[in-house]
Write a structure and sequence with these properties.
single chain, 9 helices, globular, 26% helix, binds fe (ii) ion, binds 2-oxoglutaric acid, 21% strand, Jelly Rolls, 13 strands
Length: 298
């Protein structure tokens, strides 16, 4: 008799009737100590402890010039603006994000395969990896809105079906990231506790949540508890610097009302051993330009 497919155990329940704190059940650094790669052992220790680590210059100034020119080209291209991969700022109508940049742009595609990037992702995840999501967040000056506090894993688990915390993001600065122009903030150590959020996921949640978050948003009480316990680190750095951060680190960023754009490319690597299942807490999975299925070309 054919048996019904069994659902994997949900280690990180979320979007239920109330908020819940759950201790992390997965390693942070998955490779064996001493596994060779671009990260020093000391950097991996820091990543393990804090849930993030910065690299002062992951790409050279010449490479930044090329990436910036490519970003300018993408943002000016009417076909990109008309594409579902582009998210537009509600007020100014400027481009806020472009998803799947590693597929629609050869220049960003090469970056995602660069050994300086890929080697570090493999070292953290202890396996081969693929890009689960990529995006540039353009954050132009004079009013680009921020990203409210969240754990990426909460969404990737609930809506994209990633079962384990075996996913890492790198944010590479394409423009200088100042304290003033909406740079990233992370709560160190927050990656050790999963915050299951309250509330159900609406059917087309992703369309709204890319502009403004709602489902999967932590309460003020929970954020205060985390911030009191962990503190808040604010990342600044020149173009070419990079921040690697764990999928469950609580992070966010403020609006950018300065004249200076804060444009960063985010590449999200998932372990090939952590392939997506059906969403854990959403009626439908998000489109593949937001959440790739390994081995499938969109
Ligand atoms: O661009 C930012 O400041 C944060 C973006 C972010 O957290 C995300 O894309 O998930
Ligand atoms: Fe995020």
């Amino acid at each position: 008799m054919a048996s019904a497919p069994t659902r994997p155990v949900d280690l990180y329940p979320t979007r239920g009737p109330r908020e819940e704190l759950i201790g992390r059940k997965d390693p942070v650094v998955w490779s064996e100590p001493g596994t060779p790669g671009p990260f020093w052992a000391r950097e991996l220790d820091e990543y393990d402890r804090d849930g993030f680590v910065t690299v002062d210059q992951i790409v050279t100034p010449d490479e930044i010039d090329e990436l910036r020119a490519e970003l300018d080209r993408l943002v000016a291209d009417p076909a990109v603006r008309a594409d579902e991969r582009a998210v537009v700022e509600p007020r100014s109508q400027e481009i806020r994000s472009v998803f799947e940049v590693h597929r629609i742009s050869e220049v960003f595609g090469r970056l995602a395969e660069d050994p300086r990037v890929l080697g570090r992702a493999r070292q953290i995840l202890g396996s081969d990896v693929y890009v689960h999501q990529s995006r540039v967040n353009v954050k132009p000056g004079f009013g680009a809105s921020g990203f409210y506090w969240h754990s990426d894993f909460e969404t990737w688990h609930a809506e994209d079906g990633l079962p384990r915390m075996r996913t890492v993001s790198v944010s590479i600065a394409l423009t200088p990231n100042h304290t003033t122009n909406g740079s990233l903030m992370v709560m160190p150590g927050s990656h050790r506790t999963f915050l299951g959020c309250a509330g159900e996921t609406p059917r087309d949640n992703y369309k709204r949540s890319l502009r403004m978050q709602d489902a999967g948003t932590p309460s003020h009480e929970a954020l205060t508890t985390f911030a009191d316990a962990c503190g808040i680190r604010h990342f600044t750095g020149p173009a070419g610097s990079a921040t690697w951060f764990d999928c469950n680190a609580l992070h966010g960023s403020g609006d950018n009302i300065t004249p200076y754009p804060r444009s960063n490319v985010f590449l999200v690597f998932n372990s090939v051993e952590n392939a997506p299942e059906a969403p854990f807490a959403a009626p439908v999975r998000r489109p593949s330009f937001i959440a790739a299925r390994p081995g499938e070309r969109s």
